[in-house]
Amino acid sequence: MTTTGKTTFVLVPGYWLGAWAWDEVAADLRAAGHEVRAVTPAGQAERASGAAPGADVGAQVDDLLRLIEDGDLTGVVLVAHSGANMAVTGAADRIPERIARVVYVDTGPMPSGLAGIDFHDPVSRADLEKAVAEHGDGWKIPVPAFDPQEDPVNLAGLTGEHLAAMRERGTPQPFGTATQALSRPDPLPTTPRTLIATTIPLAAVREMGEGGHPVFSMMTGPGWTYHELPTGHWPMFSRPRDLAALLAGTAAAGG
Questions:
Q1: Contact (Cβ atoms closer than 8 angstroms) between residue 9 and residue 165
Q2: What is the C-alpha to C-alpha distance for residues 72 and 168, in angstroms, rounded to an integer?
Q3: Residue 152 CB contacts under 8 Å (≥ 6 apart), including other chains
Q4: Cα-based distances in Å from 48 to 43, 66, 113, 144, 198
Q5: Which DSSP letter does residue 51 get?
Q6: CA–CA separation, 217 vs 86, rounded Å?
Q7: Where do runs of H (alpha helix) occur along the chain?
Q8: Whole-model pTM?
Protein backbone atom coordinates (compact mmCIF):
# COMPACT_ATOMS: atom_id res chain seq x y z
CA MET A 1 0.00 0.00 0.00
CA THR A 2 1.28 3.48 -0.84
CA THR A 3 0.27 6.80 0.62
CA THR A 4 0.39 10.44 -0.42
CA GLY A 5 0.45 11.84 3.10
CA LYS A 6 0.09 11.02 6.77
CA THR A 7 -3.40 10.77 8.24
CA THR A 8 -4.46 10.06 11.81
CA PHE A 9 -6.97 7.21 11.98
CA VAL A 10 -8.98 6.41 15.09
CA LEU A 11 -10.48 2.93 14.75
CA VAL A 12 -13.39 1.89 16.98
CA PRO A 13 -14.70 -1.71 17.05
CA GLY A 14 -18.31 -2.74 17.43
CA TYR A 15 -19.94 -4.87 20.11
CA TRP A 16 -18.00 -7.46 22.14
CA LEU A 17 -14.59 -6.67 20.69
CA GLY A 18 -11.59 -4.54 21.60
CA ALA A 19 -8.80 -2.69 19.85
CA TRP A 20 -7.25 -6.06 18.95
CA ALA A 21 -9.89 -6.52 16.24
CA TRP A 22 -8.11 -3.87 14.16
CA ASP A 23 -4.60 -5.36 14.41
CA GLU A 24 -4.19 -6.34 10.75
CA VAL A 25 -5.85 -3.20 9.40
CA ALA A 26 -3.80 -0.99 11.70
CA ALA A 27 -0.56 -2.71 10.68
CA ASP A 28 -1.22 -1.99 7.00
CA LEU A 29 -2.14 1.63 7.67
CA ARG A 30 0.99 2.16 9.79
CA ALA A 31 3.13 0.52 7.12
CA ALA A 32 1.76 3.12 4.72
CA GLY A 33 2.93 5.90 7.02
CA HIS A 34 -0.30 6.75 8.83
CA GLU A 35 -0.81 7.28 12.54
CA VAL A 36 -3.33 4.83 13.99
CA ARG A 37 -5.11 4.81 17.33
CA ALA A 38 -7.14 1.62 17.78
CA VAL A 39 -9.62 2.03 20.62
CA THR A 40 -11.12 -0.34 23.16
CA PRO A 41 -14.40 1.33 24.19
CA ALA A 42 -15.47 1.53 27.82
CA GLY A 43 -16.92 -1.77 29.05
CA GLN A 44 -15.43 -3.95 26.30
CA ALA A 45 -12.54 -6.43 26.00
CA GLU A 46 -9.74 -5.65 28.46
CA ARG A 47 -11.90 -2.84 29.86
CA ALA A 48 -14.81 -5.18 30.65
CA SER A 49 -13.70 -6.14 34.16
CA GLY A 50 -14.62 -2.73 35.52
CA ALA A 51 -17.78 -2.43 33.46
CA ALA A 52 -21.08 -1.64 35.07
CA PRO A 53 -24.51 -0.64 33.78
CA GLY A 54 -23.09 2.89 33.52
CA ALA A 55 -20.88 1.87 30.58
CA ASP A 56 -23.24 3.34 28.03
CA VAL A 57 -23.11 5.44 24.87
CA GLY A 58 -22.28 8.57 26.84
CA ALA A 59 -19.32 6.89 28.51
CA GLN A 60 -17.98 5.70 25.17
CA VAL A 61 -18.45 9.14 23.60
CA ASP A 62 -16.54 10.73 26.48
CA ASP A 63 -13.75 8.18 25.98
CA LEU A 64 -13.30 9.22 22.37
CA LEU A 65 -13.41 12.90 23.22
CA ARG A 66 -10.65 12.43 25.80
CA LEU A 67 -8.51 10.45 23.36
CA ILE A 68 -8.80 13.05 20.61
CA GLU A 69 -8.76 16.24 22.67
CA ASP A 70 -6.11 15.19 25.21
CA GLY A 71 -3.94 13.93 22.35
CA ASP A 72 -4.54 17.18 20.45
CA LEU A 73 -5.45 15.13 17.38
CA THR A 74 -6.68 17.02 14.32
CA GLY A 75 -7.59 16.01 10.79
CA VAL A 76 -8.82 12.70 12.22
CA VAL A 77 -10.44 10.00 10.11
CA LEU A 78 -12.77 8.49 12.71
CA VAL A 79 -13.84 4.95 11.84
CA ALA A 80 -16.83 3.10 13.31
CA HIS A 81 -17.54 -0.55 12.83
CA SER A 82 -21.06 -1.82 13.54
CA GLY A 83 -22.28 -0.82 17.02
CA ALA A 84 -19.49 1.74 17.39
CA ASN A 85 -21.66 3.98 15.21
CA MET A 86 -23.24 5.53 18.31
CA ALA A 87 -20.05 6.53 20.11
CA VAL A 88 -18.34 7.67 16.92
CA THR A 89 -21.32 9.74 15.77
CA GLY A 90 -21.68 11.33 19.20
CA ALA A 91 -18.00 12.26 19.36
CA ALA A 92 -17.91 13.57 15.78
CA ASP A 93 -20.95 15.74 16.50
CA ARG A 94 -19.17 17.31 19.48
CA ILE A 95 -15.78 18.11 17.93
CA PRO A 96 -16.31 18.52 14.17
CA GLU A 97 -13.34 20.89 13.98
CA ARG A 98 -11.01 17.97 14.74
CA ILE A 99 -12.61 15.41 12.40
CA ALA A 100 -11.70 15.29 8.71
CA ARG A 101 -14.04 12.42 7.90
CA VAL A 102 -16.23 9.83 9.59
CA VAL A 103 -16.14 6.36 8.04
CA TYR A 104 -18.90 3.88 8.82
CA VAL A 105 -17.99 0.23 8.20
CA ASP A 106 -21.22 -1.71 7.57
CA THR A 107 -23.11 0.71 9.80
CA GLY A 108 -24.31 4.30 9.85
CA PRO A 109 -25.41 7.18 12.06
CA MET A 110 -28.68 7.08 13.94
CA PRO A 111 -31.11 10.01 13.98
CA SER A 112 -31.33 12.11 17.13
CA GLY A 113 -33.42 10.43 19.80
CA LEU A 114 -33.03 6.86 18.55
CA ALA A 115 -30.94 4.16 20.20
CA GLY A 116 -29.22 1.21 18.57
CA ILE A 117 -31.94 -1.15 19.80
CA ASP A 118 -34.52 0.88 17.87
CA PHE A 119 -32.98 -0.42 14.64
CA HIS A 120 -34.14 -3.94 15.53
CA ASP A 121 -37.47 -5.31 14.39
CA PRO A 122 -39.86 -6.23 17.25
CA VAL A 123 -38.96 -9.94 17.23
CA SER A 124 -35.18 -9.47 17.28
CA ARG A 125 -35.54 -6.72 19.88
CA ALA A 126 -37.56 -9.04 22.13
CA ASP A 127 -34.97 -11.80 21.66
CA LEU A 128 -32.19 -9.38 22.60
CA GLU A 129 -34.00 -8.17 25.71
CA LYS A 130 -34.67 -11.77 26.75
CA ALA A 131 -30.99 -12.72 26.33
CA VAL A 132 -29.94 -9.75 28.47
CA ALA A 133 -32.47 -10.60 31.16
CA GLU A 134 -31.75 -14.33 31.30
CA HIS A 135 -28.03 -14.52 30.53
CA GLY A 136 -26.65 -11.02 31.02
CA ASP A 137 -27.64 -10.15 34.60
CA GLY A 138 -30.09 -7.63 33.18
CA TRP A 139 -27.42 -5.28 31.80
CA LYS A 140 -25.10 -7.21 29.47
CA ILE A 141 -25.57 -8.54 25.94
CA PRO A 142 -24.01 -12.02 25.89
CA VAL A 143 -21.32 -12.87 23.35
CA PRO A 144 -23.03 -14.64 20.42
CA ALA A 145 -22.22 -18.19 19.38
CA PHE A 146 -20.77 -16.82 16.13
CA ASP A 147 -22.10 -19.91 14.38
CA PRO A 148 -21.83 -19.62 10.57
CA GLN A 149 -24.65 -22.13 10.21
CA GLU A 150 -26.98 -19.74 12.03
CA ASP A 151 -25.61 -16.49 10.60
CA PRO A 152 -24.00 -17.17 7.21
CA VAL A 153 -24.35 -13.62 5.86
CA ASN A 154 -22.70 -11.72 8.69
CA LEU A 155 -20.03 -14.38 9.28
CA ALA A 156 -19.11 -14.80 5.62
CA GLY A 157 -15.40 -14.97 4.91
CA LEU A 158 -14.34 -15.83 8.46
CA THR A 159 -12.08 -18.78 9.17
CA GLY A 160 -12.34 -21.15 12.09
CA GLU A 161 -9.48 -19.21 13.72
CA HIS A 162 -11.36 -15.94 13.33
CA LEU A 163 -14.49 -17.38 14.88
CA ALA A 164 -12.58 -18.95 17.77
CA ALA A 165 -10.88 -15.63 18.54
CA MET A 166 -14.20 -13.79 18.51
CA ARG A 167 -15.74 -16.31 20.88
CA GLU A 168 -12.74 -16.50 23.22
CA ARG A 169 -11.73 -12.83 23.26
CA GLY A 170 -15.21 -11.34 22.98
CA THR A 171 -16.78 -9.98 26.17
CA PRO A 172 -20.43 -9.26 27.03
CA GLN A 173 -21.55 -5.85 25.77
CA PRO A 174 -22.98 -3.32 28.24
CA PHE A 175 -26.68 -3.06 27.32
CA GLY A 176 -26.61 0.70 27.85
CA THR A 177 -24.64 1.03 24.62
CA ALA A 178 -27.69 -0.33 22.82
CA THR A 179 -30.46 1.41 24.76
CA GLN A 180 -29.13 4.95 25.17
CA ALA A 181 -30.02 7.36 22.39
CA LEU A 182 -27.97 10.27 21.12
CA SER A 183 -29.21 13.83 21.25
CA ARG A 184 -27.75 15.25 18.06
CA PRO A 185 -27.26 18.93 17.16
CA ASP A 186 -29.49 20.81 14.75
CA PRO A 187 -28.17 21.56 12.21
CA LEU A 188 -25.86 18.57 12.00
CA PRO A 189 -22.16 19.11 11.30
CA THR A 190 -21.18 18.99 7.63
CA THR A 191 -18.26 16.63 8.27
CA PRO A 192 -17.64 14.41 5.21
CA ARG A 193 -18.88 10.86 5.71
CA THR A 194 -18.12 7.59 3.97
CA LEU A 195 -19.99 4.29 4.05
CA ILE A 196 -18.09 1.07 3.41
CA ALA A 197 -20.90 -1.43 2.81
CA THR A 198 -20.07 -5.10 3.22
CA THR A 199 -23.34 -6.98 3.82
CA ILE A 200 -25.92 -4.60 2.34
CA PRO A 201 -25.59 -3.61 -1.33
CA LEU A 202 -25.23 0.12 -1.88
CA ALA A 203 -28.23 0.08 -4.19
CA ALA A 204 -30.38 -1.12 -1.28
CA VAL A 205 -28.94 1.53 1.05
CA ARG A 206 -29.78 4.28 -1.44
CA GLU A 207 -33.24 2.87 -2.13
CA MET A 208 -34.15 2.72 1.56
CA GLY A 209 -32.63 6.13 2.21
CA GLU A 210 -34.44 7.82 -0.64
CA GLY A 211 -37.62 6.02 0.43
CA GLY A 212 -37.55 7.79 3.78
CA HIS A 213 -36.31 5.00 6.08
CA PRO A 214 -35.47 6.88 9.31
CA VAL A 215 -31.99 5.35 9.63
CA PHE A 216 -30.94 4.87 6.02
CA SER A 217 -32.08 8.38 5.15
CA MET A 218 -29.22 9.54 7.40
CA MET A 219 -26.82 7.74 5.04
CA THR A 220 -27.64 9.63 1.85
CA GLY A 221 -27.30 13.18 0.64
CA PRO A 222 -24.53 15.76 0.32
CA GLY A 223 -21.25 14.95 1.99
CA TRP A 224 -21.55 11.17 1.58
CA THR A 225 -19.26 8.91 -0.46
CA TYR A 226 -19.63 5.16 -0.80
CA HIS A 227 -17.61 1.99 -1.29
CA GLU A 228 -18.65 -1.65 -1.49
CA LEU A 229 -16.50 -4.40 0.00
CA PRO A 230 -18.48 -7.61 -0.47
CA THR A 231 -17.86 -9.90 2.49
CA GLY A 232 -19.39 -10.51 5.92
CA HIS A 233 -19.98 -8.05 8.72
CA TRP A 234 -16.41 -8.25 10.07
CA PRO A 235 -14.18 -7.16 7.14
CA MET A 236 -11.30 -6.35 9.52
CA PHE A 237 -10.95 -10.13 9.79
CA SER A 238 -12.20 -11.41 6.44
CA ARG A 239 -10.63 -8.75 4.17
CA PRO A 240 -8.26 -6.67 6.31
CA ARG A 241 -5.90 -5.56 3.55
CA ASP A 242 -8.75 -4.48 1.30
CA LEU A 243 -10.37 -2.60 4.16
CA ALA A 244 -7.09 -0.86 5.01
CA ALA A 245 -6.67 0.14 1.37
CA LEU A 246 -10.18 1.62 1.28
CA LEU A 247 -9.56 3.55 4.47
CA ALA A 248 -6.27 4.90 3.17
CA GLY A 249 -8.05 5.84 -0.05
CA THR A 250 -10.70 7.84 1.78
CA ALA A 251 -7.95 9.96 3.28
CA ALA A 252 -5.87 10.33 0.11
CA ALA A 253 -8.71 11.07 -2.27
CA GLY A 254 -11.06 12.85 0.11
CA GLY A 255 -13.62 10.08 0.13
A1: no
A2: 35
A3: none
A4: 4, 19, 27, 16, 28
A5: -
A6: 16
A7: 23-31, 57-70, 85-94, 122-135, 160-169, 176-179, 202-210, 235-238, 240-252
A8: 0.95
**What separation, in Å, do the N-terminal and C-terminal C-alpha atoms of the chain show?**
17
**Neighbour count for residue 215 (Cβ, 10 Å):** 17
| CA–CA separation, 158 and 199 (whole Å) | 13
R_g over Cα of the chain: 17
CB-CB contact of 173 with 141 (8 Å): yes
Which residues have a Cβ under 8 Å from the Cβ of 19 and sit 6 or more positions away? 11, 13, 38, 39, 40, 45
Q: Which amino acid is at 15?
A: Y
* pLDDT, tens digit, 9 for 90 and up, residues 170-223: 999 999 999 999 999 999 999 999 999 999 999 999 999 999 998 899 999 899
What lies within 8 Å, CB to CB, of 129 at 6+ separation is none
